Amino acid sequence: MIGAELLSPETLTVGWLIYAPVLLWAIWRAPWVELFTDSRRQHLLFGTVFALFMLWLVRRDFDTGVSYHFIGMTAVTLLLDWPLAIVGGLIAQLGLVLLGRQDLVAVGVNGALLILLPVLVTECIAILVERAQPRNPFVYIFCSGFFAAALSALLCLLLALGLLWYDEIFVMPYWLEDFIGYLWLLIFPEAFINGMIVSALVVFCPEWLETFNRTRYLSAPWKDDDPKS
Fold it and tell me: Where are the transmembrane segments (predicted)?
């Protein structure tokens, strides 16, 4: 998460120009009728927003204005699907703003980096996995869970560093050349947390996952039958 003091007014404006239209589109595409008539979905949405809010509160704030915390949006996207995931992420962001843990003017940039980007990566990978129609649920867990979370964290870190470098307000640390070594320490925990959550949901509550094809993964055999000789 990036503080507003580290970003130029132009970057903050561009962040809102990217975040706001996608947010409005997500609100338009969200299944509000099903949400209002299904108490299970309501509980999932409220519980997910609360878990996301608490996850973002557990973070490391640096004196430079940059904060590090786990993202968690991969599991949220697989659980709620992308429209409600974006809406839920916004609600969690507003909670941070009310507590003074995030700058209101930087909600656009941070929302684009920490919400839209992971949701986009997760949704694209989930679509590719669904098109491949695998029968083994571990393909879904690894590709849509572990790999999507790792790729989201990597892209988020690189883009955040790119924004800070472009605006030239944040003083880059002298150890930036060794940053590649620290990437694994940031990417692997993100992949592990999201992957474990998705694994637990597949095993115990597969009906909660909006992007999980229970008919194919749980009814069909994991391997094709060997042809009879």
Answer: 12-30, 42-58, 70-92, 104-129, 138-166, 186-209
Calpha distance 192→145 (Å, rounded): 9
With a cut of 70, say whether residue 223 has pLDDT above it: no
- State the total domains in the chain: 1
Residue carrying structure tokens 């470098």? 165
What string of DSSP letters covers the chain? Answer: -B-GGGS-HHHHHHHHHHHHHHHHHHHHHS-HHHHHH-HHHHHHHHHHHHHHHHHHHS-EE-TTSBEE----HHHHHHHH-HHHHHHHHHHHHHHHHHTTSS-GGGHHHHHIIIIIHHHHHHHHHHHHHHHH--S-HHHIIIIIIIIHHHHHHHHHHHHHHHHHHHHT-S---GGGGGHHHHHHHHHHHHHHHHHHHHHHHHHH-GGG-TT--HIIIIIS-SSPPPPP-
Q: Given pLDDT bands bounded at 50, 70 and 90, which one contains residue 86?
A: very high
pLDDT at 213: 87
Residue 225 forms part of a structural domain: no
Q: Which domain holds residue 19?
A: 4-218
Q: What is the CATH number of the domain that holds 145?
A: 1.10.1760.20
At 216, the pLDDT band (50, 70, 90 cuts) reads confident
Question: How much of the chain, in percent, has pLDDT values that exceed 90?
Answer: 68
